[in-house]
Design goal:
With 102 residues, the protein is mostly helical. The chain has three helices and two strands, in the order ααββα. Strands 1-2 form a two-stranded parallel sheet. Helix 1 packs across helix 2. The chain has helices at residues 2-12, 18-25, 88-101, and strands spanning 38-41, 64-67.
């Protein structure tokens, strides 16, 4: 992924290189300054985002809810045998939004 982002993604979007892209495009440094309810969703088994790079409770402010399920992959959060149920993530996010409105 490093090489791909360095050769393709970073230049395509106007970044100097992969390090510049990863540093400036990351929301991580801003999580402690969020002042409205926000949900940060990261699967711990995402093949593109190492679990060690995920934010912990110490990196976010009081308005940020971290949801980091053990499984979910990079997108979709399918659950169960093939064809998997793809409602787990939308349902969880919808429930979080309903709670945030109260």
């Amino acid at each position: 992924l490093y090489t791909f982002d360095n050769v393709f993604t970073a230049p395509l979007h106007g970044y100097r290189d992969v390090e510049d892209y990863w540093r400036r495009a990351s929301a991580g440094p801003h999580l402690a300054r969020i002042r409205i309810p926000a949900l940060v969703l990261n699967a711990r088994n995402d093949p593109f985002v190492p679990v060690a790079s995920l934010p912990g409770a110490d990196a976010v402010g009081k308005y940020v809810t971290l949801w980091q399920p053990e499984e979910g992959g990079h997108v979709g959060f399918p659950h169960g045998a093939w064809p998997a149920n793809v409602r787990a993530m939308p349902d969880a996010v919808g429930n979080w939004l309903l709670q945030a409105l109260r």
